[in-house]
Design goal:
Blueprint: H1 7-10, H2 37-48, E1 56-60, H3 66-78, E2 86-90, E3 100-104, H4 109-131, H5 134-164, E4 167-172, E5 175-182, E6 185-186, H6 189-194, H7 197-254, H8 259-274, H9 276-280, H10 290-304, E7 309-312, E8 322-325, H11 330-334, E9 336-337, E10 340-342, E11 345-347, E12 353-354, H12 357-361, E13 365-369, H13 370-374, H14 379-389, E14 391-392, H15 397-400, E15 414-415, E16 419-424, H16 426-435, H17 439-442, E17 445-449, E18 452-454, H18 457-473, H19 481-495, E19 500-502, H20 505-521, H21 529-542, H22 545-555
Parallel strand pairs: 1-16, 1-17, 8-13, 13-16
Antiparallel strand pairs: 2-3, 2-7, 4-5, 5-6, 9-12, 10-11, 14-15, 18-19
Length: about 575
């Protein structure tokens, strides 16, 4: 049966004395989360289950403190987890367009980067010493001298045989030629003309025969020269290998626990031995000379390929990383490959690969707002694809969309192990559930933040302690018990139920901040009930202009409201 309410039933009032404190300054700040048992249970489940697809969608009205609560909750949980590995990109000596990804112990990436720079400096120093030493010059001269003596002896023997057949071996612009001889001197045209025809014919036959022999001799000497060049090349490689061997042994010993680093160092060592000349040459810096500039650029690129690009450094990380991405654009999430303009063309290499928030959150947690993610071009679709594949690939957005792009790098994919936490209002959750077929497979856990909580004695105590925390953390004046009673009354009014309290702590905190301002205007040491009332009234007054105009129109009879039938 419907009955008329009494005045005291319409409005809930709290007796300040019932709060058992004279001000919130006497209360211990509450550091936990109140009134969200269902959401906390879902979060505990979703964050601890290590199975694909159990990412979390945190749903709730704006102002329930979802983002702050989630970040605080995750940071506390992450401290108990292990620090994830560092990730680096290094040059791929088999395919320069596909840089290799190295997974190494946390905090090792920067150390390896510094060690490789020091390694290159040491390599260049010892190579210059080795290839300018007397021992190297003497041994190389001996090898070259063997060929010189052999060539000289071969041509001397051939020249003597030619003389015996009336011909001289002569060097000309066209190469080595055989000419008629008169003793040890070339035969003059006059003497050659006086020779009988049969003698000329016989001399021509001997010259043709010797010419063929000369060609064979030259070919033999060229083969010998090739062998000597190969021997010199092997000697140079052996010299380079001997010079740098101990340097690499020290590095391999330091990183012997990581197989991929050892394999990488072996590749670097082999490449240095093969390309030692590029490390010895000192290019001359001359901006006016294009050739000198190209040589300088080539030298820099040679040294660059021995560098280490630290993509993710967890040196300062305590536990698992917690990343709050406020601007989840495609590049901010998945990383990018930067390019540099050189001689009118775009150039890139593996050192220009930059990480995204997914890389930094790998092994931990990534928190994003769903509305920001959905409004960023290609971010949502790419995130779903990455979660489905379980690998994190860095590529140009045009390439991912299938557009024609210039040839670029294809870095090795990195295994993805991250828990995604999306925050948004219920509308986004239900819309995605209905229209996105993959959403339910990738975000299987829903954590609902309620906008109200039960008004029990325990919850009232905790609510007051939360208000104490707000005042303490923001350096606000504390509330007298009468002001605290007003805040609790306002909280029930926001909840729309006398048996409930509102969990829209953003709105409650705003009222306390405004009341703090009014208390400051009165130079009051504590926030009083009148300051809370004024803050609520002023907030209402600032936003009720339209309501005031409508009320005036009703009072003037412009609008008539039928209250019967």
């Amino acid at each position: 049966m419907v009955s008329e309410l009494k005045a005291e039933q319409v409005r809930l009032s709290y007796a300040p004395a019932s709060l058992k404190c004279s001000s919130t300054e006497e209360l211990p700040p509450y550091e936990g989360i109140i009134g969200q048992e269902r959401a906390i249970s879902a979060l505990n489940f979703g964050l601890n289950i290590q199975r694909p697809g159990f990412n979390i969608f945190v749903s709730g009205l704006a102002g329930t403190g979802k983002t702050t609560v989630i970040k605080t909750f995750l940071e506390a949980l992450a401290k108990k987890k292990n620090v994830p590995a560092d990730w680096c990109y290094v040059y791929n000596f088999k395919d320069s367009y596909c840089p290799k990804a190295l997974q190494i112990q946390p905090g090792t990436g920067l150390t390896l980067q510094k060690d490789m720079k020091k390694l290159v400096d040491n390599i260049r120093r010892v190579l210059k010493q080795a290839f300018t030493s007397r021992e190297y010059s003497g041994r190389r001269s001996e090898i070259v001298e063997v060929l010189s003596r052999k060539r000289e002896k071969a041509f001397e023997d051939f020249s003597e045989r030619a003389k015996g057949k009336g011909l001289l071996l002569k060097a000309s612009q066209a190469g080595l030629i055989l000419i008629p001889a008169s003793g040890d001197q070339p035969m003059t045209d006059e003497d050659f003309g006086k020779m009988p025809p049969d003698k000329k014919e016989e001399l021509a036959k001997r010259r043709d025969e010797l010419t063929r022999e000369l060609k064979d001799l030259i070919m033999e000497l060229q083969v010998e020269e090739g062998k000597i060049e190969k021997q010199l090349e092997e000697f140079d490689h052996e010299t380079a290998a001997n010079a740098i061997g101990y340097i690499f042994e020290e590095m391999k010993s330091k990183y012997k626990e990581t197989l991929r680093i050892t394999d990488y160092l072996n590749d670097v060592q082999n490449d240095v031995v093969e390309n030692y000349k590029q490390l010895i040459i000192e290019p001359k810096a001359n901006d006016a000379d294009p050739l000198a500039a190209l040589q300088e650029l080539s030298s820099k690129q040679t040294i660059t390929k021995y560098e280490v690009n630290v993509l993710v450094d967890n040196t300062e990380t305590k536990g698992a990383p917690v990343i709050l991405e406020l601007n989840p654009t495609f590049n901010n999430l998945f990383g990018r490959i930067e390019k540099d303009a050189q001689f009118g063309a775009l150039y890139t290499d593996f050192t220009m690969i930059k990480s995204g928030s997914l890389h930094r959150a790998n092994g931990g947690y990534l928190v994003m707002r769903i509305e920001d993610l959905l409004t960023s071009f290609q971010s949502w679709e790419s995130l779903k694809r990455t979660l489905r594949d379980g690998n994190l690939t860095i590529e140009d957005i045009g390439e991912r969309m299938g557009f024609m792009v210039t040839k670029s790098l294809r870095p090795e994919a990195i295994p993805l192990n991250v828990k995604i936490v999306l925050i948004g209002e219920p509308l986004f959750y239900y819309t995605l559930m209905q229209y996105d077929l993959e959403f339910n497979e990738l975000f299987k856990v829903k954590a609902d933040f309620d906008s109200v909580m039960e008004r029990t004695e325990s919850n009232l105590k905790d609510y007051a302690a939360v208000i104490c925390r707000i005042c303490t953390s923001e350096n606000l004046r504390h509330l007298k018990n009468e002001a605290l009673a007003k805040v609790l009354e306002h909280s029930s009014r926001l909840a729309g139920d006398q048996a409930k309290l509102s969990t829209l702590f953003a709105d409650i905190a705003d009222i306390i901040r405004e009341a703090n301002f009014w208390a400051g205007e009165d130079t009051a040491p504590l926030i009083e009930a009148k300051h809370i009332t004024k803050a609520i009234d002023q907030k209402f007054y600032r936003s009720n202009l339209i309501q005031q105009h409508i009320t005036e129109a009703i009072n003037k009879g412009i609008y008539k409201i039928d209250t019967e039938n």
